[in-house]
Write a structure and sequence with these properties.
156 residues, Immunoglobulin-like, 1 helix, 11 strands, 10% helix, 44% strand, globular
């Protein structure tokens, strides 16, 4: 009986102690956007992880907006709420852009904790080129990864 009780305590304790992003840990996002059925509309998949721990960030609440860095204030996209994806740490959002070119996607978080990630991506105008995921967050330069054939590439 005591062995069973101890095993149950350790098993439940193991669930509680499983890796989770630490409270206040910065997030890192990987973003992949694909053209939707309408021109200049893109469906974006966002993968969130703890920057240090690498564990998926589940239960996040945030919006995705966009601004064109080459013309600050001239082209702003109204933020849209991100919705949970199929697996923990994945989310989806639809962005409606005003033109092709380089856009800075703004991920504004209210949960867990207030935060903002900026992801620079190039949309359209790259016919026949492979699409890409963004590996840049918080203004850091990351590696862009080739993925699919959807005419987008992050700024280098």
């Amino acid at each position: 009986m005591l062995k069973t009780l101890l095993f149950t305590v350790f098993a439940v304790g193991g669930l509680v102690l499983s890796p989770m992003p630490a409270a206040g840990e910065r997030k890192v996002a990987e973003v992949e956007c694909k053209p939707a059925e309408k021109k200049l509309v893109y469906d974006c998949m966002i993968s969130l992880k703890g920057k240090k721990s690498g564990t998926p960030v589940a239960g996040a609440e945030f919006t995705v907006g966009a601004d064109m860095p080459s013309m600050p204030g001239a082209h702003n996209v109204r933020p849209a709420p991100a919705e949970p994806g199929g697996t923990p740490g994945t989310y989806r959002a639809r962005v409606h852009l005003e033109m092709t070119g380089e856009w800075a996607l703004k991920l504004d978080f209210t949960k867990p904790g207030r935060d903002r990630l900026i992801k620079k991506l190039h949309f359209g105008g790259m016919k026949g080129r492979g699409g890409h995921k963004s590996g840049v967050s918080h203004g850091d330069k990351g590696k862009a990864m080739k993925h699919g054939g959807h005419g987008m590439k992050p700024k280098k």
